[in-house]
Amino acid sequence: MPDELRFRHVMAHFATGVTVVTSRAPGGRLCGLTANSLASVSLDPLLVLVCVGREAASHACIVAGGAFAVSILGRQHEVLARRFSLGDRSARFDELKYRTELTGSPVLDDALAWLDCRVTDVHEGGDHSIVVGEVVACDARDGDPLVFYRGGYHRMEP
Ligand SMILES: Cc1cc2nc3c(=O)[nH]c(=O)nc-3n(C[C@H](O)[C@H](O)[C@H](O)COP(=O)(O)O)c2cc1C
Protein backbone atom coordinates (compact mmCIF):
# COMPACT_ATOMS: atom_id res chain seq x y z
CA MET A 1 0.00 0.00 0.00
CA PRO A 2 1.60 3.34 -1.00
CA ASP A 3 1.94 5.96 1.71
CA GLU A 4 0.83 9.60 1.55
CA LEU A 5 4.28 10.80 0.50
CA ARG A 6 4.38 8.52 -2.54
CA PHE A 7 0.78 9.39 -3.43
CA ARG A 8 1.58 13.11 -3.32
CA HIS A 9 4.72 12.55 -5.38
CA VAL A 10 2.82 10.59 -8.04
CA MET A 11 -0.12 13.03 -8.21
CA ALA A 12 2.30 15.96 -8.49
CA HIS A 13 3.10 14.67 -12.01
CA PHE A 14 -0.45 15.48 -13.11
CA ALA A 15 -0.12 19.05 -14.43
CA THR A 16 -3.18 21.17 -13.62
CA GLY A 17 -4.42 24.68 -13.96
CA VAL A 18 -4.76 26.78 -10.83
CA THR A 19 -7.99 28.34 -9.56
CA VAL A 20 -9.22 30.44 -6.68
CA VAL A 21 -12.51 29.09 -5.34
CA THR A 22 -14.48 31.73 -3.48
CA SER A 23 -17.76 32.02 -1.63
CA ARG A 24 -19.81 34.24 0.62
CA ALA A 25 -21.01 32.92 3.99
CA PRO A 26 -24.63 33.70 4.94
CA GLY A 27 -23.50 36.67 7.09
CA GLY A 28 -21.69 38.18 4.10
CA ARG A 29 -18.11 37.19 5.03
CA LEU A 30 -16.00 36.32 1.99
CA CYS A 31 -13.78 33.24 1.87
CA GLY A 32 -11.53 31.73 -0.74
CA LEU A 33 -8.78 29.20 -1.31
CA THR A 34 -6.39 28.20 -4.06
CA ALA A 35 -7.57 24.91 -5.57
CA ASN A 36 -6.44 22.69 -8.42
CA SER A 37 -9.07 19.98 -7.94
CA LEU A 38 -11.55 21.53 -10.39
CA ALA A 39 -13.12 19.02 -12.77
CA SER A 40 -15.89 19.18 -15.30
CA VAL A 41 -18.61 16.66 -14.35
CA SER A 42 -21.69 16.91 -16.59
CA LEU A 43 -23.04 18.76 -19.62
CA ASP A 44 -26.74 18.28 -18.87
CA PRO A 45 -27.08 19.76 -16.35
CA LEU A 46 -23.82 21.75 -16.39
CA LEU A 47 -21.90 20.52 -13.35
CA VAL A 48 -18.37 20.94 -12.02
CA LEU A 49 -16.71 19.69 -8.85
CA VAL A 50 -14.07 20.95 -6.50
CA CYS A 51 -12.59 18.94 -3.64
CA VAL A 52 -12.32 21.02 -0.48
CA GLY A 53 -10.45 19.89 2.62
CA ARG A 54 -12.82 19.55 5.57
CA GLU A 55 -10.26 21.37 7.71
CA ALA A 56 -10.19 24.36 5.33
CA ALA A 57 -11.92 27.47 6.65
CA SER A 58 -13.57 27.83 3.25
CA HIS A 59 -15.31 24.46 3.64
CA ALA A 60 -17.96 25.65 6.09
CA CYS A 61 -18.28 28.93 4.21
CA ILE A 62 -18.99 27.23 0.84
CA VAL A 63 -21.36 24.64 2.30
CA ALA A 64 -23.30 27.21 4.37
CA GLY A 65 -23.27 29.75 1.55
CA GLY A 66 -24.62 27.17 -0.90
CA ALA A 67 -22.65 28.65 -3.79
CA PHE A 68 -19.11 29.18 -5.03
CA ALA A 69 -17.25 30.83 -7.86
CA VAL A 70 -14.17 29.47 -9.59
CA SER A 71 -11.66 31.99 -10.98
CA ILE A 72 -9.19 30.26 -13.30
CA LEU A 73 -5.82 31.97 -12.95
CA GLY A 74 -3.69 33.37 -15.75
CA ARG A 75 0.10 33.15 -16.04
CA GLN A 76 0.55 36.47 -14.19
CA HIS A 77 -1.43 35.35 -11.12
CA GLU A 78 1.10 33.31 -9.14
CA VAL A 79 0.94 35.97 -6.44
CA LEU A 80 -2.81 35.37 -6.10
CA ALA A 81 -2.32 31.60 -5.94
CA ARG A 82 0.11 32.16 -3.08
CA ARG A 83 -2.14 34.68 -1.36
CA PHE A 84 -5.10 32.27 -1.36
CA SER A 85 -3.08 29.26 -0.20
CA LEU A 86 -0.57 30.70 2.26
CA GLY A 87 -1.63 34.24 3.01
CA ASP A 88 -3.50 35.62 6.00
CA ARG A 89 -7.15 34.58 5.52
CA SER A 90 -8.51 37.89 6.76
CA ALA A 91 -6.47 39.84 4.17
CA ARG A 92 -7.05 37.68 1.09
CA PHE A 93 -9.56 40.08 -0.48
CA ASP A 94 -7.73 43.28 0.51
CA GLU A 95 -7.26 45.59 -2.49
CA LEU A 96 -8.39 42.81 -4.77
CA LYS A 97 -10.55 43.67 -7.74
CA TYR A 98 -13.58 41.40 -7.84
CA ARG A 99 -17.26 41.52 -8.71
CA THR A 100 -20.26 39.35 -8.13
CA GLU A 101 -22.25 37.56 -10.79
CA LEU A 102 -25.47 35.63 -10.07
CA THR A 103 -24.82 33.81 -6.79
CA GLY A 104 -23.08 36.59 -4.87
CA SER A 105 -19.76 34.73 -4.78
CA PRO A 106 -16.83 36.98 -5.67
CA VAL A 107 -15.26 36.51 -9.12
CA LEU A 108 -11.73 37.89 -9.59
CA ASP A 109 -11.83 40.67 -12.19
CA ASP A 110 -8.93 39.66 -14.37
CA ALA A 111 -9.33 35.88 -14.14
CA LEU A 112 -8.56 34.00 -17.34
CA ALA A 113 -11.95 32.31 -17.03
CA TRP A 114 -14.60 31.94 -14.35
CA LEU A 115 -17.64 29.88 -13.35
CA ASP A 116 -20.37 30.89 -10.92
CA CYS A 117 -22.00 27.83 -9.32
CA ARG A 118 -24.81 26.80 -6.99
CA VAL A 119 -23.93 23.86 -4.76
CA THR A 120 -26.07 20.84 -5.68
CA ASP A 121 -24.32 18.07 -3.73
CA VAL A 122 -21.62 17.61 -1.12
CA HIS A 123 -20.15 14.10 -1.07
CA GLU A 124 -17.70 12.71 1.47
CA GLY A 125 -14.29 11.99 0.01
CA GLY A 126 -12.00 10.99 2.87
CA ASP A 127 -10.59 14.13 4.49
CA HIS A 128 -12.06 16.28 1.69
CA SER A 129 -15.60 16.97 0.50
CA ILE A 130 -16.44 16.66 -3.17
CA VAL A 131 -18.50 19.78 -3.75
CA VAL A 132 -20.61 19.61 -6.89
CA GLY A 133 -21.96 22.83 -8.34
CA GLU A 134 -24.37 23.69 -11.12
CA VAL A 135 -22.87 26.35 -13.38
CA VAL A 136 -25.24 29.33 -13.59
CA ALA A 137 -22.86 31.70 -15.38
CA CYS A 138 -19.37 31.43 -16.88
CA ASP A 139 -17.06 33.17 -19.31
CA ALA A 140 -13.45 33.16 -20.55
CA ARG A 141 -10.99 35.51 -22.19
CA ASP A 142 -7.82 35.07 -24.24
CA GLY A 143 -4.59 34.54 -22.32
CA ASP A 144 -2.18 31.95 -20.99
CA PRO A 145 -2.92 29.84 -17.91
CA LEU A 146 -0.94 29.43 -14.71
CA VAL A 147 0.12 25.78 -14.43
CA PHE A 148 0.92 23.74 -11.30
CA TYR A 149 3.28 20.82 -11.78
CA ARG A 150 5.49 18.88 -9.35
CA GLY A 151 4.89 21.37 -6.56
CA GLY A 152 5.78 24.50 -8.55
CA TYR A 153 4.10 27.17 -10.65
CA HIS A 154 4.85 27.18 -14.37
CA ARG A 155 3.90 29.00 -17.55
CA MET A 156 2.98 27.15 -20.72
CA GLU A 157 5.71 27.04 -23.36
CA PRO A 158 4.48 27.86 -26.86
C1 LIG B 1 -1.66 24.73 -6.23
C2 LIG B 1 -2.52 24.44 -5.01
C3 LIG B 1 -3.69 23.74 -5.16
C4 LIG B 1 -4.50 23.46 -4.05
N1 LIG B 1 -5.67 22.77 -4.24
C5 LIG B 1 -6.50 22.56 -3.20
C6 LIG B 1 -7.74 21.90 -3.41
O1 LIG B 1 -8.10 21.52 -4.52
N2 LIG B 1 -8.55 21.71 -2.32
C7 LIG B 1 -8.17 22.14 -1.05
O2 LIG B 1 -8.95 21.92 -0.12
N3 LIG B 1 -7.00 22.77 -0.83
C8 LIG B 1 -6.17 23.00 -1.87
N4 LIG B 1 -4.98 23.67 -1.68
C9 LIG B 1 -4.63 24.12 -0.32
C10 LIG B 1 -5.40 25.41 0.07
O3 LIG B 1 -5.25 26.43 -0.90
C11 LIG B 1 -4.89 25.95 1.43
O4 LIG B 1 -4.95 24.94 2.40
C12 LIG B 1 -5.65 27.17 1.89
O5 LIG B 1 -4.89 27.88 2.86
C13 LIG B 1 -7.01 26.88 2.50
O6 LIG B 1 -7.58 28.10 2.92
P1 LIG B 1 -8.78 28.20 3.96
O7 LIG B 1 -8.42 27.34 5.14
O8 LIG B 1 -8.89 29.66 4.29
O9 LIG B 1 -10.01 27.69 3.25
C14 LIG B 1 -4.14 23.93 -2.76
C15 LIG B 1 -2.94 24.66 -2.62
C16 LIG B 1 -2.15 24.92 -3.72
C17 LIG B 1 -0.88 25.72 -3.56
Number of separate strands: 12
What class would the helix/strand composition place it in?
Answer: mainly beta
User: Helix proportion of residues, in percent?
Assistant: 10-25%
State the CATH superfamily name: Electron Transport, Fmn-binding Protein, Chain A
CATH class: Mainly Beta
Description:
This protein has 158 residues and is mostly beta strands. It has one domain (4-155): Electron Transport, Fmn-binding Protein, Chain A (Pnp Oxidase, Chain A, Roll), CATH 2.30.110. It has three helices and twelve strands, in the order H-E-E-E-E-E-H-E-H-E-E-E-E-E-E. The protein has helices at residues 4-11, 57-65, 78-83; strands spanning 16-17, 19-24, 30-35, 39-42, 47-53, 67-72, 98-100, 106-108, 113-125, 128-140, 146-149, 152-155. Strands 3-2-6-9-10-5-4 form a seven-stranded antiparallel sheet. The longest helix is centred in the middle third of the chain and has 9 residues, at 57-65. The model has no long low-confidence stretch (mean pLDDT 97). The structure holds flavin mononucleotide. The site of flavin mononucleotide (FMN) has 15 residues, from strand 3, strand 5 and helix 2. Flavin mononucleotide binds next to strand 3, strand 5 and helix 2.
